[in-house]
Amino acid sequence: MDLPRLFGVEYLKGRRAIYPEDLDAWEKKAGINVQSGDVILIRTGRWARYKAEGEWDALKDSSGLDASCTPWLKKRDIAVLGSDLASDVMPSGVEGTEPDFLPVHLITIVAMGAPILDNCDLEALSEAAAARGRWTFLLTVGPLAVEGGTGSPVNPIATF
């Protein structure tokens, strides 16, 4: 889901929340319908922003999903959520999460049982998908087997 492309910008500005209606608009623009078992990758244009603006405090000034998107994700029964940031808009604006504990993260992992891919570089994927006019592909992700681990470096591969 390439939100900068949806809005006709290079990248989303900091603190720009993505709402369920934005996800619906992307589905319509891309001609897709997210279904049970799908992986969703959210491109905010983080790396394009970094190139244009340089470093920023990601925990205080990042675009991403508003917590109101979690029922949308649950309804579609996604298998994995990925983003070029941490998925959540920051700050989240959700009271009781001081400091900001990433409510989309928490709900996706804990309540939905779906893994998350953070800090993906989706720039080349965005260009490849746009060139093909195709926003669906096979995604292969092979995490390391880390005994007792809760995370792993991965190298996701998109196959069109």
Summarize the structure.
The protein contains six helices and seven strands, in the order αβαβαβαβαβαββ. With 160 residues, it is an alpha/beta fold.
How would the blueprint of this fold be written?
Blueprint: H1 3-7, E1 17-18, H2 20-30, E2 39-42, H3 46-53, E3 64-65, H4 70-76, E4 80-83, H5 103-111, E5 116-117, H6 123-132, E6 138-140, E7 157-159
Parallel strand pairs: 1-3, 2-4, 4-5
Antiparallel strand pairs: 6-7
Description of the molecule:
There is one protein chain. This protein is of the alpha/beta class and 160 residues long. It has one domain (3-159): Glucose Oxidase, domain 1 (3-Layer(bba) Sandwich). Helix content is 31%, strand content 12%. It is built from six helices and seven strands; from the N terminus they run αβαβαβαβαβαββ. The protein has helices at residues 3-7, 20-30, 46-53, 70-76, 103-111, 123-132; strands spanning 17-18, 39-42, 64-65, 80-83, 116-117, 138-140, 157-159. The strands form three sheets. A three-stranded parallel beta sheet has the order 2-4-5. The longest helix is centred in the first third of the chain and has 11 residues, at 20-30. It is globular, with a radius of gyration of 15 Å. It starts with a helix and ends with a strand.
Helix/strand/pairing class, anyone?
alpha/beta
The CATH class name reads Alpha Beta
Query: Distance N terminus to C terminus?
Result: 15 Å
Major β-sheet profile: 3 strands, parallel
Percent of residues in helices: 25-40%
Low-confidence runs of at least 5 consecutive residues? none
Number of strands: 7
What percentage of the residues does DSSP assign to strands (E)?
A: 5-15%
CATH-scheme architecture: 3-Layer(bba) Sandwich
pLDDT average, as an integer? 94
Counted by DSSP, the helix tally is 6
* Total discrete domains: 1
> What is the CATH superfamily?
Putative cyclase
CATH topology: Glucose Oxidase, domain 1
Q: What would you call the shape?
A: globular
What order do the SSEs take from the amino end to the carboxyl end, as H and E? HEHEHEHEHEHEE
Indicate the radius of gyration in whole angstroms. Answer: 15 Å
Strand order of the largest sheet: 2-4-5
